[in-house]
Every structure is written in C-alpha cells, then in structure tokens.
Amino acid sequence: MPIPNRLDRAFQPGRPALICYFPIGDPETSGADPDLYLSEGVDVLEVGVPTPHPSLDGPVVANSMRRAMASGITNERACELIRGFRAGPGHPAAVWLSYAASARQPGFTEAVSASEADGLLVLGDAPAGVHKSIDTHAVGFLPHSPTNEQIASAGEATGYIMLAASEGVSGTLDGVASTSAASLSRLRDAGIRVPIALGFGITNGSQARRAIQFGADGIVVGTAVLNASMQGPQALRRLLRELRQALDE
Question: Which side of the chain, N or C, has fewer Cβ within a 10 Å radius?
Fold first, then answer.
C-alpha cells in the first residue's frame, strides 16, 4: 500500500515547518540519521543527492556531495536509500534535492519515481517537464531577489517554495536579511499560495524566529545541520532541538 505523501501535512497552521538538509551517503556525517531528525521535530528532509557542480552551495555542502559521490552514491543508489528510510513509520517527508545536470542523466525520473520521494527540488535550469513526469510534489527555489519570470515559474510548485534568505550561495552567514520580509510579501502579492520557507544562512534559534517573524511558513537549514552532523549525533540533536524550540515559541 503506498505511503501517503507526507508533504501534505508538513506545514500546519500555527506550526512553522522545520526543513533540514540530509547528506545522503557522506561517510563523514555520522550524526545523520532519519530517526534522530524525526525525534527532534524535523518535518522535511531535503535529501542532497550529489552532483558534480553544486553551483548554489557553499564549500561545506559541495565537499559533502563530493564525498558522497566518491563513496558510490548515484541516482540509483539514492533511490534505494530514500525508499528505505521513507518506509519507516512517521518519518519526515523526504524531498529529493538535486541539480539540473543530474536531472538530465538517463534514468533520473525513473529513480526519483521509484524512491517514492514526497517531493522533487531541482536547482538550476531544470529540464522542461521533469516535474510533470514524476508523480510527486514539485518544490520550487527562488533567489533572494527573484525576477518576475522566476516567480512565475516557481508558481508551478505544489509542495513549497524555498526562498533564499540572503544573496549568494548556501552557507553560514550573519543572519536573515531584513529584506526577506519584502521578498515574502512580493511573492504573496504575485499570487503564490503554497508555503514559503526561508533558507541559506539560518544557523540558530534566533535566526529561525526572525525568519518566521518576517512571514515565512518554515525554515530550511543546510550548512549548520551538515556541520553538526559531522560532529556527531549529540551535536546534531542539540542544534535541531534549538531550532524546533525556537519555531514553537
């Protein structure tokens, strides 16, 4: 019996969603365990399926992807792993996160479909129709200051939209840019109705609260989670607990 799509309940009224990067196949991330994410209230795992040139990611994520590729993670192997931990009872929603170059590889859509991922997020110039060929939620991405054309394209998302909380690539920054509130309002004024989560540079509880105060429906935390997972389970648990508590205040 198919597992219900968990993105449909990841965003609840009055409860901001906690979306975290999951470094699949990186041998240096001993703390990365779906059960740990679940126990600390993570709603969505953005599973980073490695690609050779992750242009929107800073060195921490890019290096993690390189290690995962060297350890043998392909689209086919990622499919097996995602399907495996998604079958666990109550696990967070799993979004397949990749880049356009990987989406153009033979067998990509078949691997995503077979993984039963709850959503697909393709960064870069995704092949036309890739989301329509896969029976799962389309997740969108927008830079901090998107063009009208980019906003129109992101309007096709059915799961959620990740909006960069600052300019540049992913990484640990000084905080959520104050212009994020205007960016969120602009998307709503443009008719975007799916949840919008702020990401890129959120590293602690105070920044998480600031993102929600600006009007985000959730947050995406990548580099900080990855750094913590390399320090071990306890470090990751502390960070996830801090973020969840901040969102629930």
Answer: N
